[in-house]
Design brief:
The protein folds into 2 domains: about 500 residues, Amino acid/polyamine transporter I, CATH 1.20.1740; about 140 residues. Helices cover about 70% and strands about 5% of the residues. The protein has a 4-stranded antiparallel sheet with strand order 1-2-3-4. α8 runs antiparallel to α16, α12 packs across α19 and α14 crosses α16. It is a multi-pass membrane protein. This is BCCT family transporter. InterPro entries: BCCT_CS, BCCT_transptr.
Length: about 675
């Protein structure tokens, strides 16, 4: 098959797809044929990263939270992700459901009981077995699953949605670097960024599928009594998930992913409601209130805390939990960020940030309180430590916990269903995101490509599960998060530059000459617009337009008994001064200003400002410090009208008591 024929059947960007598949294949072969060496290399690298770059992860995540909150409360918050008249593609409830399902659904099922119990038996600073240990366990769980995690996702999502829908760039990571790299995003640098994002997404989702299948097989074994722990059963579960994910991905975001996400959210609410009612209800409600207060009271300290002043074991706990979480969320940011960008067209930046930061995090807090605090209460009041004794088996811990509640079989079956749908949702949304990166955001991507990536995810997960390489891959993902954190900082810089340009674009007004122009002499106006004026042109404008107009005003005012004079400061500056007793003099000045022509304009022959590195403009100035404006297109009549307009404004302000302080300030004559 020729290249041209192949290109007609696919939207793949081959400079991204081929290197990515080569890297994926190489790592798979290395993991399969030398699993021990692979695991040792990546685990050693992970230990080095967490030891020497904990401070960096701490400050980077703090910067992401600060940036998003700052943008949300700033004037940039009203900018829409798309044209100014764009409407949201999905209703609010569907949008929130998809955020929840794609971002952390699987993790909540896996760690909802496991993390609070593990913090309870090994808290960073509190004494084991005390109420302080339980309080600290929930505080750190909230910290890991709160707004910091969603800020990491939100940064990438906002950058991609903004440049994708506002700048009409492809919905890929490279587009976020457009303000920095400009057209170079279409070259090797842009390809490299997308290769990194594509590989990271494949390995991140494959690792989650692998660990998720372990929990799913443990749950099925726990409920049915059959052995689902064999490798063949686990591979069968992966195959089933891939088939269902492929069918969902083929139907598109508006159908399969949306329907599954809404079903997921409904089942999740049902399960958390059951545990809330069947468990210690009053204790859980009180714990939720106290957990929220404790989190808000300590959020600033937690954001910047790295246990430098605590014991060595506390610092090791921080590196083994918080830093690994931050790195894990960063490694998942290309996937989740691109997905939430894809579903957020038409929303304002403020709505996006508030929705992404607060709503999923609040649900996480409720979930962790209901499951985590219920598990802690049962372990200390009912199981007498039996639950925490099995904390090492996280795969089955959720189902062990449910055994202590009524209707354990029914709730466990609901949990298995929820886990399954979460996996399918993660896999199908992941397949669409990967295809989006691989095809540079082409909306006409054929269905078979999404199915292809769903199969790739299943094959990678199955190979690693068979070879025992999941731990090595998890460690590799943590290491890969370090350079991508640097890329995310560049994305933040690019976002700020883009927002600044957007604001300047929206504030750009028509020239003052347009206020008077009635369309006459349009050929002369067009010739002026297309010409780059030099200093001689401005001097000619002074002689032919400015000077006659000022002298006419001076003559008329003098005849009416008003002291007025025209002053020539130098060859490039002249002004009309109207003297007023006990008031600041009225000054209408015009000066020749020099402006540098941007490099991009010099390189573009289609623009009028492209022949010389500088251009000259006749610009007004005023004695009250107001910013002047370009008047190069004025005719003499328009010049007269503008002077009188400014003089009338000056006299009106003189009669305004609120403006008297400035207007009556003395001027030096």
């Amino acid at each position: 098959m020729t290249t041209s024929t192949l290109s007609n059947r696919t939207t793949f960007c081959w400079p991204v797809v081929l290197p990515s598949m080569a890297l994926v294949l190489a790592l798979l072969l290395f993991s399969i044929f030398s699993p021990g060496d692979t695991e040792q290399i990546f685990i050693t690298s992970k230990a080095w990263v967490t030891q020497y770059f904990s401070w960096f992860y701490t400050l980077v995540v703090a910067a992401f939270v600060t940036l998003l909150i700052g943008i949300a409360i700033s004037r940039y918050g009203k900018i829409r992700l798309g044209p100014d008249d764009a409407e949201p593609e999905f209703k609010f409830s569907s949008w929130i459901a998809m955020l929840f399902a794609a971002g952390m659904g699987v993790g909540l099922m896996y760690f909802g009981v496991g993390e609070p119990i593990q913090h309870l038996i090994s808290p960073p600073t509190a004494q084991v077995g005390t109420p302080a240990a339980a309080r600290e366990a929930m505080l750190m769980t909230f910290f890991h699953w709160g707004i910091h995690a969603w800020a990491i996702y939100g940064v990438v999502g906002l950058v991609l949605a903004y440049f994708g829908f506002r700048y009409n760039l492809p919905l890929t990571v490279r587009s976020g670097l457009y303000p920095i790299l400009k057209d170079k995003i279409n070259g090797p640098w842009g390809h490299a960024v997308d290769v990194f994002a594509l590989c990271g997404t494949i390995f991140g989702i494959a690792t989650t599928l692998g660990y998720g299948v372990l929990q799913l097989s443990a749950g099925l074994s726990h409920v049915t009594g059959w052995n689902f722990g064999g490798i063949h059963m686990q591979l069968g579960l992966i195959a089933a998930v891939v088939v269902l994910a492929g069918l969902s991905a083929a139907s598109g975001v508006g159908k399969g992913v949306r329907i599954l996400s809404e079903l997921n959210l409904g089942l999740a609410i049902a399960l958390v409601g059951f545990v809330l009612i069947a468990g210690p209800t009053l204790y859980l409600l009180g714990a939720f209130s106290e957990n929220i207060g404790n989190y808000l009271a300590n959020i600033v300290q937690l954001t910047f805390r790295n246990f430098t002043y605590e014991a060595a074991n506390s610092e090791g706990w921080y590196q083994g939990w918080t830093i690994l979480y931050w790195a894990w969320w960063i490694s998942w940011a290309p996937f989740v960020g691109m997905f939430i960008a894809r579903i957020s067209r038409g929303r304002t930046i403020r709505e996006f940030i508030i929705g992404v930061l607060l709503i999923p995090a609040t649900f996480n807090f409720l979930w962790m309180t209901v499951f985590g605090n219920a598990a802690i209460w049962i372990d200390t009041h009912v199981a007498m430590g039996a639950l925490s004794a099995t904390a090492g088996n996280v795969d089955a811990l959720l189902f062990t916990f449910l055994d202590y509640l009524p209707f354990a079989g029914l709730s466990s079956a609901l949990a298995i269903t929820l886990i399954s749908i979460f996996f399918i949702t993660s896999a199908d949304s992941g397949a669409m995101v990967i295809d989006n990166i691989a095809s540079r955001g082409d909306p006409k991507s054929p269905v078979w490509q999404r199915l292809f990536w769903a199969v790739v995810l299943g094959v990678v997960a199955g190979c690693l599960l068979t070879a025992g390489g999941l731990k090595a891959l998890q460690a590799m993902t943590i290491v890969a998060a370090l350079p991508f954190a640097v890329v995310m900082l560049l994305l933040c810089w690019g976002l700020l530059k883009g927002l600044r340009a957007d604001e300047l674009h929206s504030r750009q007004k028509l020239s003052h000459a347009s206020n008077f122009w009635n369309g006459k002499l349009w050929r002369k106006r067009l010739a002026q617009i297309l010409r780059q004026p030099d200093q001689a042109d401005v001097h000619r404008f002074f002689a032919e337009t400015v000077t006659p107009a000022m002298y006419l005003i001076e003559q008329e005012l003098t005849q009416r008994g008003v002291k007025a004079r025209v002053q020539f400061i130098d060859d490039d500056t002249m002004q009309l001064v109207v003297e007023q007793d006990r008031l600041r003099d009225f000054v209408y000045g015009v000066k020749c200003t020099q402006q540098a022509v941007p490099d991009f304009a010099l390189a573009n022959e289609a623009l009028p400002l492209s022949s010389q590195p500088v251009t000259f403009e006749p610009t007004t100035y005023f004695v009250d410090g107001r910013k002047g404006y370009d008047i190069q297109y004025f005719t003499e009549e328009e010049m007269l009208a503008d002077i009188l307009k400014q003089y009338e404004r000056h006299l009106s302000l003189s009669l305004n008591a609120d403006a008297a302080l400035l207007q009556h300030a003395p001027s030096h004559r």
